[in-house]
Structures are given as structure tokens and as C-alpha cells.
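Supplementary notes (optional reading)

For those who missed the lab, this is the record we used. Protein: polynucleotide adenylyltransferase. Length: 305 residues.
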Amino acid sequence: MLNENKGLPENREKIKEIKSQIYSLASYNSNKIMLQNIDINDNLNRFRCVTKIVKRWAKNHFIYNGQFGFFNGATLNVLVIKLVLLYFDSSIIYLLEKFFQTYSEWDWDYQVKLEELSQKTMSWTVDDEIKAKNGFLLKYVARSAEEKIYLQRHFDILMVVLMPGYPEQNCAFNVNYSTKQIIQREFNEANNLIMNAKNMNGGYEEFINFWKNWLDGTKFLKKYNHFLLILCFVSKNDLKEAENYCRFVESRIRLELIFSIELNQRKIKYTHSTDKEKCLPNEIKRKFGGYYIQHWWVELKQTIK
């Protein structure tokens, strides 16, 4: 068993590197296992079709970005395959209906997984995830007890979607308290819309328009009332360096929103960030036109009293 907490520092770094390589290979292997599980009759085609639709829904409703604490491709693949295996030989429409019904009602205290592994070494455990998440809190150890309690809710085990194969990994690791609320809201809204669509009396064209409008979603800036605009602007002299710097800024957004915005502004219920909204005020374009610019919109959802 590889234990990175023991041995000389150089050995610990080597073990970390080996474990990282193992997890990367496990991610690749999990895709093969998922395909093997559904490559029966026409289930593979159903899986591909349902996955494409679900990913389009997630992207257009701004909950598809693992770095920001939302779904990624691996998470949606597992969620879809779980339903394809449960309702094999079902129609695509029925699978979509069951997808949103199942996960809008899912008790997230329970894991979503495809199989039970006998080999547990290096696989996901509750204790390991709590330890990893608490690592993010170490530099905030000087904060008050009240603030620590508030922060802790973001780093509890909130959503577990285990990739098949060994070692198991939680592909929903980045989901936090705020993003989970947004995901659940979108699941509930989708499920309600689909249930209402079943009672539609219109014709084929009306049915098609309903699905198209629902999948296309609403523009991000029309979903909410209050926003932050995060700008990264760098000289165009070295484009590669500018892109790398803005990628670093993007990698910090999820945690900084928790530590710098939600923690200090208790009137904010949650924040919702996206890189998919391309709208940029003309004043910004004029002022920073000579720079490499990347931007992100952040919605501020206020608490209701």
C-alpha cells in the first residue's frame, strides 16, 4: 500500500506522483468499464443520446463546470449510465424523464455508484475526502469559531458520484454547499417542466418547441438581479503567459467566492459563477481594448428575510 505520510520527504513526493498516475489511469479505465456495462442491445446508442441531451441542458443552465463546483463529463456519465442500467430497453424520452425525476428526489447522503468493489486500497472513503477538503481550511485556522462552522458546511461530504473501476474516485468532489443548492434547484425545475409537458394538449410542433426552449435555457444575466464581474486583463506581449495567468485566476474563483464573498456577506445565500456568458460592457471593451481579456460573471443570490 502506498502511504505518502511515511518516509523521507523525497519518497513522499515520489509516492504522490505515482498515486497521481494511478488515478489518471483509473479515470481512463472507468470509461472502458462504463462502455462494457451498457454495450448490450441498443443501450450504447441510448446512453450517447441521453448524455448529449443532459450535457446540453447542464451547459445551457450553467451547471457544467467541475472547476466551479458543478458537474463535469464524468459525473454526468455515471448519473446517466445508472439510469440506463436500471431502465434498460426504455425509450430516450422515458430515460430523460426518469433521469430528472430520480435525481431531483435523490437523497445525497447516499452515494451514486455502479458497482461494489472488493478491493478498497486507495479507493474513495469518507475520511479521505474530509481530510482533503479540510486541507483547504488550514490557512484559515485563525478565523473565529463561528466562521469555521460556516465554512465547514462547504467542505462536508455533499455529493458522492463514484467512477467505476479501481481505485474509486468521487468525480463530484468540488461540489460545495452553494453549488449543490443550484444543482438541486435546476433538477427540480427540470423535473417539474417535464411533468407538465406530459399533460400538454398541443401538437407535435408545440412539443418540439417546448424541448428546444427548455434545453436552450435562459441567458445567465436574465436569471438573476445582482452580479459581480471578474476581469483578468494582461498585456498581449506574451499571449501564452497571459492565458496561463488567467487560467490561474479562474482556478481560484470557486474558493475565493466562499472565503471572500459568502463568508463576509451573510446576506448572500450563495454565488453562481460562469465562464459561458460572453456579454461584456462596452465601457470595459473600450478601457481594456489593448489587453488580453478573460472575464467571468458571478451571480449573487441574496437571502430572503
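If you only remember one thing from this example: The two ends are 52 Å apart (CA to CA).
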